[in-house]
Amino acid sequence: MTPALLPLLLLAAPRAAAAPRPAGETVISQSITIRAKSSGPSVSVPPPSPTPPVVDEVLGSLSLGRGAAPAPPERVRVAPDAARLDAPFPAPPFLALSPENIRALYDAWTFEVLDSRGNAVRRRRGVGRLRGALVWDGNADDGLLALAPGRSYRYRFTGRRGGRAFVVESEPARIGSFSRTDFSGETRLEAAADLVFVPGSARFSPAAGRYLDAMTAALRAAGPRQDGTYRLELDAASPRGRLARSRAAALAARLAASIPDDLARVKVAVVRAARAPAVAALVPPAAGPALRIK
Fold it and tell me: Tell me, which fold does domain 182-283 have in CATH?
């Protein structure tokens, strides 16, 4: 069958089906589906999807799965007692925070003393509101002396309640000298070496008089030790170096001329600086009745 006759047959099929058929005649029919030949390969169209910029914008606006960033703690800065710390040999406490200065509510707190490098030299923690002042006496957590003369220190109080926090922080304060009395009653008057000597020299600095005069007055008031001597200590980076020996001789001569007393009775111990280079006067307890322990 030629392709040209195919449309005529298709048009004639309905008419033949509608014509009456004689009785007893058998009719055979068949459905034929005709598909045209494909003219080329099929085109694959991807399903619609959002563009990458739209996805990035939506994901950036969601906090789901990332967690909301906590709000930074509120900070309040206070000024230290700089006038008292600038005087020769202030006594502890060197830093103090009164609970009356804290108006915010808190359930837990942390009190830290930080040096000029940001290292915590003392740390305390507690729960509930403060009932007394928080003070720093110059010691570390282990009870040993941590204060190094000539360096700066500050405190940081952090209060927390219900997932929120606030910080009360003092401005750094340089502590050039200090006094400290131990359990035996001996008082240590310590000053930074650069306050007494010209850096790199055994010559006294212009400010040395206010510190050496205070040391001399304290030693004279206490009197000599039981062995009849007056003692100073020179903390040096190189105890056996020429500079340390020259500075020790200058201190002994200055003290002997100021007391005045025999130069042989003035002892200057040169030790390696554990905290910072410094000059210290070791003042014995004031004379009084002897304490007898039975």
Answer: 60s Ribosomal Protein L30; Chain: A; (3.30.1330)
CATH 3.30.70.20 fits 74-175, yes or no: no
**Is cis: bond before 80, omega within 30 of 0?**
no
How many alpha carbons fall within 13 Å on the CB side of residue 33? 1
Query: 122: closest CA among 102, 95, 149?
Result: 95
At residue 20, does pLDDT exceed 70?
A: no
Same fold, 74-175 and 182-283: no
How far apart CA 266 and CA 254 sit, in angstroms, is 10
Q: Is residue 24 pLDDT above 70, yes or no?
A: no
pTM of the model: 0.71
Residue 33 has pLDDT above 70, yes or no: no
Mean pLDDT check: name the lowest of 94-103, 138-147, 200-209, 239-248. Answer: 94-103
